């Protein structure tokens, strides 16, 4: 395909959330190829899954993902599948409930190295019926806060994970730990499909959910505020604490000083 033909296909399959280079100078997130906005579907943000995932893997596994399998729940266009394969992962599988994103993943598979990668249209509740073998590493990003039963949903993914699960989720910070109602559109591309969903209030809730699912060892990658009194965090959960050996060596835990703890209490921080 010529560059113009690639661009036309990118536009036809849009809008895109994953920005991936499919030919020299041709990226799916290029504004030149964006379709006209459709209010019914919303306007997805654009992210670079390769850059995001390379940083994560470098912190956890200095040898990359060689010898490890990879599962991506709610994989969108499959960007993290292709990134995992580039980093040496073997068997890679992703699923998303929206056909829109899987059409994009299949298009990418024609232009980005994709051996041992598969992606299909599937809802999380249907996954146990697929007969999948467990995966070493699971990505559970951008899905927890779109589920009508987030604990049961996470358990499905956890039961298919042998080593590490990565949760990246929006939050609704509150002084009381819990889940807060998140009613959402069933049509918008970046929403769930059930209408009913829940925000975790923060890190403690996600850690407790992971522990109940069999992943008691956790590390907080980040936790920051976003717009409209929301937040975003990423927590890594492991069955065995040894998974974090490399991460703990390169990013040792900083214990707050007595003065900083006192200041935190005076400011109402934990």
Describe, in plain words, how this protein is organized in 3D.
The longest helix has 12 residues, at 49-60. The protein has one domain: 3-Layer(aba) Sandwich (Rossmann fold), CATH 3.40.50.150. Helix 2 (49-60) packs across helix 3 (79-86). With 270 residues, it is an alpha/beta fold. Strand 3 (70-73), helix 3 and strand 4 (92-96) form a beta-alpha-beta unit. It has helices spanning 3-13, 49-60, 79-86, 99-109, 150-159, 203-212, 245-250, 258-266; strands at 21-23, 26-27, 70-73, 92-96, 117-121, 135-141, 161-171, 179-181, 198-200, 217-225, 231-238. A seven-stranded mixed sheet has the order 5-4-3-6-7-11-10, sandwiched between helices. Strands 1-2 form a two-stranded antiparallel sheet. It has a two-stranded antiparallel ribbon with strand order 8-9. The protein has eight helices and eleven strands.
- So what's the overall shape? globular
Q: The CATH topology, please?
A: Rossmann fold
Q: What Rg do the Cα atoms give? A: 19 Å
Unreliably modeled segments = 259-270
**SSE arrangement, N to C:** HEEHEHEHEEHEEEHEEHH
CATH homologous superfamily? Vaccinia Virus protein VP39
| Major beta sheet, strand line-up | 5-4-3-6-7-11-10
Q: What would the average pLDDT be, to the nearest integer?
A: 93
First-residue to last-residue Cα separation: 56 Å
Describe the main β-sheet briefly: 7 strands, mixed
The figure for the number of domains is 1
Report the CATH architecture.
3-Layer(aba) Sandwich
Strand content: 15-25%
CATH class: Alpha Beta
Proportion of residues in helical segments: 25-40%
- Number-wise, the strands total 11
């Amino acid at each position: 395909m010529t560059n113009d033909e690639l661009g036309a296909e990118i536009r036809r399959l849009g809008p895109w959330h994953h920005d991936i280079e499919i030919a020299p100078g041709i990226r799916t997130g290029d504004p030149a190829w964006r379709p006209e906005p459709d209010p019914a579907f919303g306007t997805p943000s654009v992210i670079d899954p390769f850059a995001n995932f390379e940083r994560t893997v470098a912190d956890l596994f200095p040898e990359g993902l060689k010898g490890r399998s990879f599962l991506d729940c709610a994989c969108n266009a499959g960007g993290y599948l292709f990134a995992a394969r580039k980093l040496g992962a073997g068997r890679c599988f992703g699923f998303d409930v929206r056909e829109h994103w899987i059409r994009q993943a299949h298009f990418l598979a024609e232009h980005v190295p994709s051996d041992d990668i598969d992606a299909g249209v599937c809802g999380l509740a249907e996954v146990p019926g697929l007969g999948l073998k467990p995966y070493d590493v699971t990505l559970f990003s951008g899905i927890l806060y779109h589920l009508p039963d987030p604990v049961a949903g996470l358990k499905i993914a956890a039961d298919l994970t042998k080593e590490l699960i990565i949760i990246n989720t929006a939050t609704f910070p509150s002084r009381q730990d819990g889940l807060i109602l998140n009613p959402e559109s069933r049509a918008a591309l970046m929403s769930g499909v059930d209408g009913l969903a829940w925000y975790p209030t923060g890190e403690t809730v996600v850690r407790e959910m992971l522990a109940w699912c069999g992943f008691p060892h956790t590390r907080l990658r980040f936790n920051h505020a976003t717009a409209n009194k929301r937040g975003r965090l990423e927590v890594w959960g492991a069955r065995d604490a040894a998974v974090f050996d490399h991460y703990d060596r390169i990013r040792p835990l900083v214990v707050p000083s007595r003065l900083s703890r006192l200041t935190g209490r005076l400011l109402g921080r934990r």
